[in-house]
Each structure stands twice: as C-alpha cells, then as structure tokens.
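Blinded run. Sample ID left blank on purpose so nobody reads anything into the name before looking at the predicted structure. Input follows.
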Amino acid sequence: MPEDVVPHPRLLEGKRVLITGVITHRSIAFTTAQRCQALGAEIVLTGFGRGKRLTERAAKRLDPAPDVLELDVNEPADLELLGTDLNDRWGRVDGVLHAIAFAPEDALGGNFLTAPPESAELAFRTSAYSMKALAQALLPLMSDGSSIVGLDFDASVAWPVYDWMGVAKAALESVNRYLCRDLGPLNVRSNLVSAGPIETAAAGAIPGFGQLAKAWERRAPLGWDPRDAGPVADAVCFLLSDSARGISGQILRVDGGFSAIGSELPPSDD
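Blinded prediction complete.
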C-alpha cells in the first residue's frame, strides 16, 4: 500500500476476507487484496477453469501468497464446496468482495437490440444473481457485523457499447438493496462500490472502453487515472471494515466526481 494512503493501518485487523475476481495483477480485486493484507486481513482468492492459473500467478505477487479456491459462481456445487472449505479453514467469514461480471460478446458493443435472450440471461446470472448466490452460500459462516461488497459501474444511465452488461449492473444494484433488506436483521451488510473506468483485463474486452476512460479523464473534477485502482480498493476496504458498520444497501461512487457533473455543452456557434 502506498505510504501516503494509510489513514488506519490496521483497519481490517483480524478480519477474514474472501476475494473473488482476481484475474491478473491489474484487477481491481488484486489491488483490493493488497490493501486488505496491508490493513491486517487474512484473505483467500477464488478462480475457476483455465483462468484459475492466472489467478494463482497473480496470488504469488501478494505477501503472503494466499490460497486460490475453485469457484465458478454459476455452479451450485462449487458454491457448496467453497462454504465447506472456508468453514474448515476459518470457521467464519468476515468479509466478501464480489468482483464478478461477464457478458457474451454478442451482448455488448452496440448489440443491445440483437442480443439473443440466452446471452442477456447469462450476463444477468453471472453479474447480478451471483452476488445473491455467493451471499446465500456463505451466510452460515458470516460473523456478526460482516460485510459483502460488490463492484459496480453506474447503471443510472445508458452508456455507449455497455448494453446488456449495463442492464445486468442495474440488476446488481437492485440485488444489493434486497440483500440489505434480508441480511440486515442478521447484522450482515451489503454495499456496492461504483467505480470509474479502470484499465483491467476485463475492461479490455468491452468494445469502446477507451472512450469511456477518456471521458472520465476529461470531466472528473478530481481527475481520474484509469490505471490506478487504489481509490476503488480503499473504498472497498472501508466498507469491509467496522467503520462502515452503519452502512448497508448503498452505492459508494468512486469516480473522481464524474457522476456529479452534467453532460458537456455542445460547441458554440458564436
């Protein structure tokens, strides 16, 4: 963790946190894993299929290198085994990062009207329903005051090229509210971090992503560096911590202030 961003160096002391979504060291989830460790948490990562090898390679960059557990979030058997492993390993889970999203190529890049229902359904199940599925699988292990945090991208408007992933993110925001409702009585929190565009392996698969990143760099009042996932990771760590114990069902926007500013004016004729 950079020395200039350590307001509470033991913010997550003693926490046990599951982190999904680490593909490479450029993932937002990877930076979050680094922050969690620096703030005192013990972590494990998840990966699946051929991509698990990439996750294991990224895990070696962390200190200490965490274990990587098998998890295809669309496979009930994987979710069940994950719960069993974490129960044997830790006996409880204090925090979960849901950093999982996917939409087939034919559901992105201007294909909103032509995308087949199967692709839209897969985008929803993988990117939104999976947060509920993960919460349900781990709920028996979630300790009093534990926290689930998901990664979001502003779904209040329709973005160019984002298409059915945008619809899935809107569903994720609704899932977050319903998790808040149902988990709150158990003192388990659910929140989202809506991040500005970050250059990750997943973002590289979105047609036109560079246009979104340039818009943020140009318009965000605080400025925006799409190569720096640190501000997003720090917000996730805050929501995982006891400092956010009164916050649930919310969307924390970490976008340099972009979402607070109106659209650019068209060029003047004068």
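Unblinding after everyone has recorded impressions. The chain is about 35% helix and 15% strand.
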